[in-house]
Amino acid sequence: MKTTANLITSIIIALWVVAIAIISVQNYTPVSLKFFNLQSIQISVGIILAFSAGIGMIGITVIQPLWSIGSSQQGNETLDDAEFFVDDEDF
Which of 45, 71, 86, 89 is paired with 62 by a 20 to 30 Å CA distance? Predict the structure, then answer.
């Protein structure tokens, strides 16, 4: 299962890299990003896509362990509830 997950992750990353390369070659027009009153310098779309994909991958890598902590805590609560509700007929 872990090998399949690694393969799928590698394929997705490879597709991102190929898509960024194709878009950056075909569309070299410089753009600038605006967020509220802030405006960035003019850079190509490919660089913006590369930075966005990198930040997204790093963000998911950081957040993923937090999801496993949350799911392990929820799993313990269901076990505690199952032990609390025990029929007297079983004894």
Answer: 45
